[in-house]
Amino acid sequence: MIKTLTTLAGSVLLLCATTPARAADDYTIELYDLYCTACHAVKASGAPQAFTDEWRDRLDQGIGTLVSHAIDGIGNMPPMGTCVECSAEDLANIIHYMAQEQ
């Protein structure tokens, strides 16, 4: 089940009832490779590492919260993770992709 929530800033967030493991489309993988690997594939960055269990506790916050953090930035993460072309849906897809344990 997917619901849409509009924040006060007008950004659209996708809220999913569950976080199923699913194959990512090529565009999501391309965005991850271009914008996310610099931090989410480098342990020394302090960012939660992609494809590890580091996402379990974060996912408990809900995908809407995680997308909001990605949009606004959090900690050392800049707003939009520097992906100016990403939509809220793209960010949700990237988060789901990174949260899959491999």
SSE arrangement:
Blueprint: E1 2-6, E2 12-16, H1 26-40, H2 56-59, H3 63-72, H4 88-98
Antiparallel strand pairs: 1-2
Helix pairs in contact: 1-4, 3-4
Summarize the structure.
With about 100 residues, the protein is α+β, with helices and mostly antiparallel strands. It has helices at about 25-40, 55-60, 65-70, 90-100; strands spanning about 1-5, 10-15.
Q: What does this 3D model show about the protein?
A:
This protein has 102 residues and is α+β, with helices and mostly antiparallel strands. The protein has one domain (2-98): Cytochrome Bc1 Complex, Chain D, domain 2 (Orthogonal Bundle). It has four helices and two strands, in the order ββαααα. It has helices at residues 26-40, 56-59, 63-72, 88-98; strands at 2-6, 12-16. Strands 1-2 form a two-stranded antiparallel sheet. The longest helix is centred in the first third of the chain and has 15 residues, at 26-40. The chain is globular. The two termini are 24 Å apart. The model is unreliable at 1-21 (pLDDT under 50).
